Amino acid sequence: MIADLGFFALLIAFLLALYACAAAAVGSRRREQRWVSSARSAIILGFPLLTIACASLVYSLANLDFQMQYVSQVTSHSMPMYLRVTALWGGQAGSLLFWAWLMAAFTFAVMLREWRRDRDLEPWVIIVTAATLAFFLALILFFENPFLRYWQGITGTVWTAMWQPTGAQPYIPIDGNGLNPLLRHPGMIIHPPMLYIGFVAFVVPFAFAIGALVTGRSDDRWIRVTRRWTLIAWLFLSLGLILGSRWAYDVLGWGGYWGWDPVEIAAFMPWLTGTAFLHSVMIQEKRGMFKHWNMLLIILTYCLVIFGTFLTRSGVLSSVHAFAQSAIGPMFFGFIALTFGVSLALLSKRWATLKSEVEMTSLLSRESLFLINNLLFMGILVICFWGVVFPIVSEASGGIGRAIPALAHIFTGQRATVGPIFYESATGPLWAALLLLMGIAPLSAWRASTARTLGRAIWKPFLISLVVLAGLLVGGMRQPLALLALWICAFVLLVTVYEFWRGARARTNRGENFLQAFWRLVARNRRRYGGYIIHIGVILIAVGVIGIELFQQETQGSLAVGERMHLGSYSIEYESLAEFETPDGRLVDRAVVNVFKDGQPLTQLYPRRDFYYESQQAMTIPGLRSTLEDDIYILLVDWEPVSASSATFKMYVNPLVNWIWLGGFVFIFGTLVASWPEADALPQRSRARLGGTPERA
Amino acid sequence: MSSTSLAQPLPTGLGNKKFIIGGLLILAAVVYLIVTSTAAGAQFFFTIDELNQRGADAVGKPARVAGAVLGDTIEYDPETLTLTFTMVHMPADTRLINDDGGLAKALHAAVNDPTRSRMQVQYIGVKPDLLAHEVEAIVAGKLGADGVFYADENGLLLRCPTRYEEALPGQAGDY
């Protein structure tokens, strides 16, 4: 049986991961490379074995083997083949298996690298990756086995077991539950894999960091080795977050893209520490500082990755992501506590050897601004973490409120929650500070920077940004918050563009034409200019966020056929409504709505409601017209049955929201530029041997 | 940000102090933001029983109430987008609910128990697709003096007993 094959592959992979941990530990203790090599072979085998496990689950999903509990939970006859296959990560057990498979793939790739220069780190990288893998495989094997089958006893009761219990017959449901309709969206099909790749890839730099801590290496070797891994992890995590927002915008039908849902925050927190880490390691490479910071940031990132998986998978917090609940919470909690405790103990043991090689001197130096950058990211992290745990904290800590009356309104002893208002007002100023820093830091000098040197670099973009501000005022914008936020965006964008221009002009002076100069500038300093491109992407995203958060308009109303509803310069007219069934088991009610701008016909939109028979669940799909200026977002709320003589609509105008997605593309492109292998340069190793430090920003 | 002009690197002691003060300032700002935003954004969870016990004390204060929806009471006027329904008291402790056989069972018990306290809810907005008999509703809003709970905009969350992870007897690890 195909399920048995998958199960045994899983079991062997688990035993091999345990063996790899043990063998690597023995090899490291006895300093015998053969033990380490054996551990390495064992962990390498995990990937093909888990590929077999995943393939057998996918085979069962594709062939609708409903006797398997997982298959009947997430698939049904009416689902097309691509959805059956991607249902691998549609439920809890499958997505854990998928997570483990990705983890094994990354471990596989790491193990195949050239280890000659890093023999001392090797056993510890194996131990960390193998232990992580073993933990997830244990969860799957003992708590969330996707290969369980249904059996029916003589009395008619149905239960699940891996193998046929005595006296029981196989029980095969006629049809499955089908995948949650909310998840049947292209964004939702690729969003989890992106997020998971981002999650598991961060295990690699963590493993090297632990290796460096255990072996007492205080140099930046672990950072240089894992630089590209970290960028890839960060790229996929960012991609996952952007896709998730796009899915929320298209499918959840509330006109928004980010709801500060605990599960969103769970994926966002490792991104925050990961981003701080990416910036912070540059200082260690360049100046030999921030060594404690970098260790702490990568430890936090790893723990938050596991915590993020835990939040999404344990059902500990109720949210729109409530589709996965089970009892694996305590396991996750124990694992996080253990890894966090051990990592911090190692860090404190090595605290003295990780002292900075130089002292920081000037408040406006690049190093100092990067330190502020770290602190701001940590601030946002603390706010997010506080928001997520607040329901638990507020309930458990009524004593604090009674002891300190000033805090009585926060620590009441009553379970409480904080919503988007909390996150927006608490993180808003920090985001603004980060944006501003993004404009100033690239212009500051290493070691010592003065207000005068900084001013000299900044004044041109600063003046032009004031022109932009004046333009906004003349254009009629009066909201102080919007003016401030857009001014910061304009300033940072100008500084960044100015940096490109300055660099390219220096090259044109040497006789290159401008395009050539621009191309070579970026190609020769990929990390620096890739970073700037990412910054431009961030500004575009910020502009989109400002647009929808501060200028979103909405209205709702019931319209008779031919009647119109107005919002801003737009109006919509209800034309007709049709009801029909689709072959994949939906009942669709689709309205035809004419959109006008300033009274002139603009376009036609089709907001609709899909009702899924098998899951008895409805889904509201907006009618959407998207331009760079704004989105018109119309929801079909209700309608007069049979006659369809009137229907109710909710209408949003979301200014600038498209800049979020546009910024997302720029962001991803910048990350690719920054992580692209430098083909024209000597390999890093030979450069290091030649004694030259490659130019880095 | 400080505008101190420092052409010469300062002696270590003074340099360090400056950074410690800067760090403390950022820390203080974060703490301040957390405290004020929590005070402004916190919503306290109540069960319907707890809300009733508080009586007039609870009127007009932001709250979050969870309960089971009574299907027969759902009324919706698409003209004014006014949605009203009645919620039945449910225990707040999720662990108790889980030990007791899960959310589905707790919801079923609640709607079939006429002795439990009830609360009328009014919500203005789109009628959610998930709203039906025996689902759990979590409403955020304020209790009115008339005893009706007025939910905020977007203040209506619904949770149906997970259809996609249907609990069958003897799940998880019974092999």
Summarize the structure.
The complex is a heterodimer of chains A (697) and B (175). With 697 residues, chain A is of the alpha+beta class.
Low-confidence stretches of chain B: 1-13, 162-175
Strand content of chain A: 5-15%
Which percent bin holds the helix content of chain A? Answer: 55-70%
Form type of chain B = elongated
**Count of DSSP E strands of chain A?**
14
* CA radius of gyration of chain B: 25 Å
Order of helices and strands of chain B: HEHEEEHHEEE
Reported by name, the CATH topology of the largest domain in chain B is: OB fold (Dihydrolipoamide Acetyltransferase, E2P)
CATH architecture descriptor name of the largest domain in chain B: Beta Barrel
Total helical elements of chain B: 4
Please describe what this structure looks like.
The complex is a heterodimer of chains A (697) and B (175). Chain A is an alpha+beta fold. Among the domains of chain A are: 1-147; 180-259 and 289-354, no CATH class; 552-658. Chain A is 60% helix and 13% strand. Chain A has helices at 2-30, 33-62, 69-74, 81-86, 92-111, 122-142, 186-201, 203-215, 221-251, 262-287, 291-314, 329-349, 366-396, 398-403, 420-440, 451-474, 480-508, 514-524, 526-551, 658-675, 684-690; strands at residues 149-152, 158-161, 169-170, 416-418, 553-560, 564-567, 570-582, 586-597, 600-605, 608-612, 617-621, 623-626, 630-639, 646-655. In chain A, the strands form three sheets. In chain A, strands 6, 7, 8, 9, 10 and 11 form a six-stranded antiparallel β-sheet that branches. In chain A, strands 5-14-13-12 form a four-stranded antiparallel β-sheet. Chain A has a three-stranded antiparallel β-sheet with strand order 2-1-3, with no helix packed on it. In chain A, helix 2 (33-62) packs antiparallel against helix 5 (92-111) and helix 9 (221-251) runs antiparallel to helix 20. Chain A starts with a helix and ends in a 7-residue tail after the last helix. The relative contact order of chain A is 0.07. Chain B has 175 residues and is an alpha+beta fold. Chain B has two domains: 11-42; 44-159, OB fold (Dihydrolipoamide Acetyltransferase, E2P) (Beta Barrel), CATH 2.40.50. Chain B has helices at residues 12-41, 48-54, 94-99, 103-111, and strands at residues 42-46, 62-69, 75-77, 82-88, 118-124, 136-143, 148-159. A five-stranded mixed beta barrel of chain B has the order 2-4-5-7-6. The radius of gyration of chain B is 25 Å and the shape is elongated. Mean pLDDT of chain B is 76; it is low at 1-13 and 162-175. At the A-B interface, helix 3, strand 2, helix 13, strand 4 and helix 15 of A face helix 1 and strand 1 of B.
